[in-house]
Structures
1.
Amino acid sequence: MDFGRALQDIAADAERVVRSVEIGAVTARVRRRRAQGVVLRSVGGLAVVGGLVAGAGLVAEHATPPPPAAVQVTEIPTPTPTPSPDPAPTTAVDGWVVGAAPCGTTDVPTPQDSPYLSLRGGLIIGDLDPATAMLDADPAGADLLDLVEAGPETPGTPAGADGDGASHLMTVLVDESGTIAFWSDPARQLPQLRATDGSGVLSTYGYYPAVDCRTGRPLAGTYRAFASDPSAAETIELAPLTFGPDGTRPLSWNRGTLPTCGEPAPAALLAGGAGADFTVTLDPGFAPDEARSAGIHVPVTVTANGPGRLRGQVPQELSAVLVDDAGVVVSENQMMGDFPSAATFDVGAGESFGTSLFSWFDMCDHLDPNTGWAARGSYDLYVYDTFPAASGSTTLTAVGGPYRITVR
């Protein structure tokens, strides 16, 4: 139902700007994009749009609005550390039923990489506003939105244990003693609600009370975060989360002018990222003449160009675009690096850190009619992504390429 409404909204919006919509092409794009997208509603609030794909339990990708053209950058600064609060009471609130395992155990997932499944995303603290059915981001909020999603290890391949397409995703928070204080227990998930402001908006799945599963008391302090699918042997560590007035707020930044589908590639991109903060190189084991038409997932090395030192959290993954022989961008840059990983970087000129490139080939007109992905042929692949620095109003740009690839 959410999928159908999304298609209707897209068609209606397109009609208002005169251009007609080819529903077949829209369907091909919507089915493989994130079903949960996040856009800033205000400096202190988020509007969360999306739903879940039924059946396999995997979160599909869906179309997100194009980034603004302005180059203004906004980042919520890292708060000054405050004294640690007094330890929270360890007794359960009256009537609280302690959560089932793994709640209260030290069975912390160990990071591991599945050959079939890839996890990405993160957690946002805030309050679910009944008027709008949307999240008001606030580190002292009473709710927790789980935006971790599961997908194939490589675009276009089966996902799940042994490639069966099933996902058994679980997210946990671990306190300083190494004990699990929260997990995405389906029994604790908040029910969906419809906005009372008359907009008809229905809240997404993934909201939980921001309370300790052992005691029912509000989560307080800093926790390590992990997302895991035991059946597929996939576990990643997410960025840590701090609850309280000076806690973790989602970073907001304007990504600036990005390569646009159907337009000539920017000169800086064609020049190898002249002026970029980082140069990105693909893993030498990647076979550029064996790229899948749906997209690629490959390890990358990110090297600082200088001057000075650059600090921040390593993005979970970077994105890329394809450029044809006429120098025109023929794929959409989906900018998947919305969430950082648990790793941090502090690098000067010539120093590097590692992450990965995960990019669907969502094409403009160079489509294979049978798949909706890249048509067979050769393209130049350019890594292109931006992410915020640790402090100050700075957006860091990472560029790499061109890498000549052949879609089979």
Note: Residues 18-82 have pLDDT under 50 and may be disordered.
2.
Amino acid sequence: MRMRKGIEMSGKVGRGLAAALCVLGVGGASIPAFAGAQGPAGAEMTLVFASGKTRSVAGSVAVPVRCLGEGDRFCSGQVTLSRNGHHTSIPFSVRGGGEEVLFVPLRLAGGKGHPRKVHGVATTVQPLGPATRTQEFLYAG
């Protein structure tokens, strides 16, 4: 944790504030440009849901995902889907810039023809710093 003129520099807010102060020339030499930010070797990787739709396939939910990040690295972590009090988590590893379909074992009971809402959470581990987390409601038709 860094202190600069009484401002706490921790977490995403601290990194953003430090970057803004450096751009404005307020940070001085004691706060590196983009303090706590990750350079090319540690750039942030984040898994996102590629569309708000899923489909049920043989007792699993097919979830299209995309890795936002550099192509020579991977988004790795865990996807959790939940519906009606039931939840299932699976690990993932998707190449940077790539799209894949993950199959999560979760039965979607209910009538066909009516969209079923599933809550999806993707937690992506970062080489430096805390994991990123993406949440979205997905609809299975």
Note: The chain has one helix and ten strands.
